[in-house]
Design goal:
A two-stranded antiparallel sheet has the order 1-2. By secondary structure, the chain is of the alpha+beta class. The chain is globular and about 35 Å long. A hairpin with a 4-residue loop joins strand 5 and strand 6 (65-72). It is built from 1 helix and 6 strands. It has a domain at 13-72. This is Amphi-Trp domain-containing protein. It comes from Roseibium denhamense. InterPro entries: Amphi-Trp_dom.
């Protein structure tokens, strides 16, 4: 869903296999330095480079669980806040 110029949002129900394919595509896009997102309402191309900030938030409640992954970057890499090595099992 295209909200405004320079921003892309999409919401849909997917199964685990589809999510894995999307994450694999994101991984490949980061590796080559170009991420393209799109659907029937619009699209956006991002060019990650340099140091990338990663934020992972995971929550589990009685009736719902949530995983948020946020990757951000800027041309200025002087802000090097780091929480240490991430462990995922």
């Amino acid at each position: 869903m295209m909200e405004r110029k320079g921003r892309f949002r999409h919401h849909s129900l997917q199964d685990k296999k589809s999510i894995q394919k999307l994450l694999d595509a994101i991984k490949r896009g980061i590796q080559k330095g170009e991420l393209e997102f799109g659907d029937d309402t619009g699209g956006i191309t991002l060019e990650p480079n340099g140091l990338l900030n990663l934020r992972v938030t995971a929550t589990a409640e009685e009736d719902q669980s949530r995983l948020d992954l946020r990757i951000t970057w800027t041309n200025d890499t002087s802000d090097k806040r780091d929480s240490g090595k991430l462990k995922v099992k």
